[in-house]
Design goal:
The complex is a heterotrimer. By secondary structure, chain A is of the alpha/beta class. Helices cover 35% and strands 10% of the residues of chain A. The chains are: A alpha/beta, B alpha+beta, C alpha/beta. Chains A and C meet through helix 1, helix 2, helix 3, helix 4 and helix 5 of A and helix 1, helix 2, helix 3, helix 4 and helix 5 of C.
Chain lengths: 514, 132, 450
């Protein structure tokens, strides 16, 4: 790659990086001044306030006002803009966090989701006045079902993990209906941590299955683990190593032979849209992360949306209420005797669904397939550029992401986390680190389809430069990052002496002296 | 990394020291190094029963957590409150100040079946972590 | 394709550069029997301009929230939303970032979470709060699980006067757990203290109350606390509290609550047809290691400068897997940020004025509406922002007519939750409703009930 210049790490405190000089990060309470306020309420009925408060039972009333900051609107805005500058984000540069699918979030989706006719809708308005949103939800359920090749979809889960939990509740409901008392759910050792956690949350027992040498499910091991007590299996496809589970259909057949169910974790579905459908793989239940595959923003940790698609056999068990289309229009059906019950205060994160609906309609079937294709091309291209500096775990083509290993840096006393931190100096977010657990010192890299070749080249060049540093000047890497807005923070000390809320100086001193 | 002579070890990286008719249990230098900065230690109450091979507590670092497995069966006679208050002691002094529990062994024979220092060294070498 | 990073020509060059003959080569691991043969049947792609027309069209098939007059509540409320909130959350730095795994480049998000935790502690009186849950209902379910694991009791007691959906979500969550759900009946719309006294002798893991409750009434938390502490000190008193009400009401910590949860939708979050919102989860410091979800703590760098980090991560699913306290991963950080900005703008005085204005308007509306022939309050107990009316005809019918008569969203018929409560209407009155608007509601109801 002679045409790619080795990137220079950003200089500390450069104005280009948008970084203020390093100092303690400000908390809104520190802008508080007595009597300041950032919002004025309508004046009017002021005289009645006191009487209204007096009407509340005295024993239940607050004695002192809550300790909230007192700040003017401009000061509030300056504070939040000020701290916002300390964030890395997709709109700044590459965010190759494996399995999280940090793709670009189209701006039009934000605009449309903010239309008052969506954003301000109250769920309890008369159904006749909600025909637009009910139609949107009804259509989107069917469009997603079409994408994954399944019979029905619930848009209720608020995130992927809640989708997984719904999947496990569906396992329970199905088996209860069939008169089974099955307890075990098989989970490959490469699974996301949410999988075994969801299994336990629903009263099942996870049985961990070791992956085969190629990083995929070991059909023999799975067959050996299956017995009459097997309620089903959770399969991530493509798996967390970025590999397609070739034996998924055979696994499904073996599970179905004991009347078990196959749950597919669709966190990585962005590799498959338009190319392969879970419905054709023998999958009974699959969740989709709209905040991954369908481009809705991650919001610093949420909100997400984790719709679940199921076979016709499982449809009666989906959570209520269900949007139905009748001759008189759309309506919500609450009475479904076999339903697992409600999962959400209403019908799921409709505001997130509106964004995903806009995304799906901006692409159509061919566009969605092109997205998956580009994600796969980008991942494979980047994998080849990275492999010479950080060896790739499995020597074959990958799907939408791949795993490199930083094991070799240990002999230079550099840990995988140091490599991740050094990447921050080059203006990139780090990949997912130390996951999946089955690859030592894993760097899980997912570029997504929205990145260009020059960006991928710059990222690969940065990793090459870091690999050189590990050999020649390891302390540079060990002490990274050098140019971020804050330095490495002492997480151990923070955990040992927990401070998880703002306390005024005096209160802190008292606590410290105690 | 230190492997102290005269102690007994388990493959789960705990050590055990015989003191009269009691035993003292802790985690090895290798274990504390693997976990790195320990931030929390969860220990049983005195009087609790240890069952060989079962978890009796846990050691938590920033991004890892390890269960403590009882090397032998017996009854807990004392726990080290100092490590509960200041878990960093385990990093500084895994074989001395960082001990975890003291117990009355139910079956003295169980102690004999544990690894010797040499056995434990061989185990670590197998893991590719030969000590200097 | 405007969001794809390369053209077909570039793709060919990239494939050539890595030694792949074609895209198909990369897919050789996908068995041909599993390949999708034909694209699924979706409508054709739309340009941005067309998309705006499609979605605006769908939005226009709903009621126009800017022209309607809303007295709807039951968990979602029409409160003020300061303009600064959207301007800030539309910063790419906030909405296009993810969970702050790399603290050095995520101090913006981490700081806002720390602030959210602090503000929630200030309102609830608790010592520790997490970075948010999906919503108030799932927070309630997680609180039941925490109580179960902390007390090892196998029953949880839910007041009949909590939101029926919250109860439903708890039942769904707990299906498969060791916890059995029992109901604490209501009496005159509030928790039945005699029944509570009896139920506490069974030493349940938790008693869950909502404050104000689903009917808008204030629960006698002082008397509940007295009974709980006397009869079953180990039981977790869990309060689902509207965060806005806590500007006027004593923090549940004062009544010995072990956990306080709720939904922050009233704090600057648009109702969005039911989601996304964010739940909050606050508890005692002694439960820190049982807390579900993300938690942010203060930390220092090598030079002693303060910053923030995710902490106690070993509770979480990505480390402890099947032994995790919860399976939650993605939460509702951006909605929690809205609440954080909201509380920062309002401050202690603004929030109190807002909550007091709700109370004043609520009382005003109740008085006025009870002047209509055949209309009366269903319960006599004290309320804050919301109350139940008994109507002389079916409530569902009345709200349909009121909407058709002039876009008045008069309230939520309780028959939607309890079919036998056909003539009961839940009315919410926020600080946004003027005396003139309350008069409009009254006149509309007079008309449709006549």
């Amino acid at each position: 790659m002679a045409e790619t210049k080795t990137p220079e790490p950003q200089q500390s405190q450069s104005t280009e990086a948008g970084c203020p000089p390093r100092r303690s990060v400000e908390v809104i309470y520190e802008r508080s001044l007595p009597g300041h306020r950032g919002y004025r309420l309508p004046r009017g009925a002021a005289a009645r306030w006191e009487a209204a408060i007096d009407a509340l039972p005295e024993t239940l009333r607050r004695k002192r006002p809550p300790e909230l900051p007192e700040v003017t609107e401009p000061e509030v805005v300056r504070h939040f803009i000020g701290i916002s500058l300390l964030n890395h984000h997709v709109d700044r540069s590459l965010y190759p966090l494996g399995s999280c699918t940090m793709k670009y979030n189209p701006k039009i989706n934000e605009e449309l989701a903010r239309l008052p006719g969506f954003a301000l809708l109250h769920p309890q308005a008369p159904e006749t006045s909600l025909q637009g949103i009910l139609a949107l939800l009804w259509r989107f359920e069917r469009e997603l079902a079409c994408v994954v090749g399944m019979a029905a979809v619930s848009l209720h889960p608020a995130a992927g993990a809640q989708g997984e939990m719904l999947g496990m509740k569906l396992f329970r409901a199905y088996h209860r209906h069939r008169g089974h008392a099955k307890r075990k759910v098989l989970v490959p050792d490469s699974a996301h941590g949410t999988n075994p956690a969801s299994v336990v949350l629903s009263g099942f027992e996870p049985v961990q299955i070791a992956s085969g040498a190629d990083g995929r499910m070991d059909l023999g091991a799975i067959r050996a683990a299956i017995d009459d007590d097997t309620a089903g299996i959770m399969v991530t496809n493509p798996n967390t190593l970025g590999l397609f589970e070739k034996e998924i259909a055979a696994v499904a057949e073996a599970i179905h032979a004991v009347d078990g169910l196959v749950y597919m974790d669709g966190a990585n579905l962005n590799a498959l849209v338009g190319l392969a459908q879970p419905g054709a793989m023998g999958v009974d239940i699959v969740h989709l992360n709209l905040h991954k595959t369908f481009s809705t923003p991650h919001g610093g940790g949420g909100p997400g949306s984790g719709p679940v698609a199921v076979t016709a056999e499982l449809e009666p068990f989906l959570p209520v209420p269900i949007v139905e289309r009748t001759e008189a229009g759309y309506r919500l059906e609450h009475g479904r005797p076999l339903s697992v019950g409600p999962l959400h205060p209403w019908c799921g994160n409709a505001g997130v669904v509106v964004r995903a609906f806009a995304y799906l309609h901006s692409l159509g079937a061919e566009g969605l397939a092109a997205v998956s294709r580009a994600a796969i091309v980008n991942a494979n291209y980047l994998m080849k550029q990275v492999a010479d500096s950080f060896p790739v775990a499995k020597r074959e083509w990958c799907m939408h992401e791949f795993i490199s290993s930083a094991s070799w840096t240990k002999k230079h006393k550099v840990r995988v986390m140091d490599v991740a931190k050094r990447l921050l100096d080059f203006g990139f977010h780090a990949p997912t680190v130390s996951f999946p657990l089955i690859v030592p010192d894993a760097l899980m890299i997912e570029p997504t389809e929205t990145e260009t070749r020059p960006t991928l080249d710059r990222f690969a060049a940065a990793l090459r430069e870091i690999a050189r540093e590990v050999r020649e000047s390891p302390e540079r890497v060990q002490q990274a990052p050098h140019s971020t807005c804050v330095g490495r923070l002492n997480e151990a000390a923070a955990a040992r002496r927990l401070r998880v809320r703002w306390q005024a100086a005096k209160e802190r001193d008292d606590a410290g002296g105690a | 990394m230190e492997i102290r002579e005269g102690l007994r070890y388990t493959k789960d990286h705990e050590w055990l020291r015989q003191e009269g008719d009691e035993v003292v249990i802790g985690i090895t230098d290798y274990a504390q190094e693997q976990l790195s900065d320990i931030v929390f230690v969860e220990l049983p109450e005195p009087g609790a029963t240890l069952q060989a091979g079962d978890a009796f507590g846990s050691v938590e670092a920033v991004k890892a957590v390890a269960d403590l497995y009882a090397p032998i069966s017996g009854e807990v006679t004392a726990v080290n409150d100092a490590v509960a208050d200041d878990p960093a002691i385990v990093n500084r002094s895994p074989y001395e100040d960082g001990w975890m529990v003291r117990a009355q062994a139910a079956d003295a024979g169980e102690v004999e079946s544990l690894l010797s220092a040499a056995d434990y060294r061989a185990l670590l070498e197998e893991l590719g972590e030969a000590s200097e | 394709m405007s969001n794809i990073g390369h053209t077909p020509q570039e793709e060919r060059a990239m494939l050539a550069a890595i030694g792949a003959d074609s895209f198909e080569t990369l897919l050789d691991q996908v068995p041909s029997a599993l390949r999708q043969q034909k694209p699924c049947d979706l409508p054709p792609a739309q340009s941005e301009f067309e998309l705006r027309r499609t979605l605006s069209g769908l939005a226009a098939e709903n009621y126009d929230p800017l022209r309607s007059l809303s007295f709807l509540g039951a968990g979602f409320y029409d409160h003020i939303i300061p303009a600064a909130i959207d301007q800030i959350v539309l910063r790419s730095e906030f909405y296009t970032a993810y969970t702050p795994y790399q603290a050095e480049v995520a101090q913006g998000t981490l700081t806002t979470i720390f602030e959210f935790q602090s503000l929630i502690c200030a309102l609830s009186g608790m010592e520790i709060a997490n970075a948010s849950m999906y919503d108030g209902a799932s927070a309630a379910a997680e609180a039941m699980l925490l109580a179960g694991s902390a007390t090892r009791s196998e029953r949880v007691l839910l007041a009949e006067s909590i939101h029926p959906r919250t109860r439903g979500v708890i039942e769904t969550y707990l299906d498969g757990s060791a916890l059995e759900v029992l109901t604490l009946p209501e009496r005159k719309g509030q928790v039945d203290l005699a029944a509570l006294e009896q139920a506490l002798t069974e030493k349940p893991a938790a008693v869950l109350l909502q404050q104000p409750n689903f009917f808008g009434l204030l629960e006698p938390l002082d008397r509940v606390a007295e009974l709980q502490q006397r009869l079953s000190a180990e039981t977790h008193l869990v309060v689902s509290a509207d965060p806005l009400s806590l500007a006027l009401l004593a923090p549940p910590a004062d009544f010995g609550a072990q956990t306080v949860i709720g939904d922050v939708q009233p704090l600057g979050i648009p109702p969005q047809f039911g989601g996304p919102s964010a739940g909050y989860f606050a508890t005692r410091a002694s439960h820190a290691r049982r807390l579900p979800g993300r938690l942010v703590a203060e930390a220092t760098d090598a030079e002693g400068r303060r910053g923030f980090v995710l902490t106690l991560q070993t509770r979480e699913q990505h480390i402890r897997r099947e032994k995790a306290t919860s399976n939650i991963c993605t939460n509702s950080a951006l909605m929690a940020l809205r609440a954080t900005i909201f509380l920062s703008l309002l401050g202690p005085t603004g929030l109190q004025e807002m909550a007091a204005l709700c109370a004043a308007r609520g009382q005003q509306a109740a008085e006025r509406l009870c002047g209509i022939r055949g209309v009366a309050r269903r319960h006599a107990g004290p309320f804050w922002r919301e109350f139940v009316l008994t109507l002389p005809r079916e409530a569902e019918d009345a709200v349909e007519r009121a909407y058709e008569a002039g876009g008045v969203l008069a309230g939520v018929p309780l028959s939607r939750f309890w079919p036998e409560r056909r003539r009961e209407l839940l009315v919410a009155v926020t600080e946004k409703r003027t005396p003139e608007e309350i008069e409009t509601l009254a006149e509309t109801l007079e008309k449709v009930l006549a």
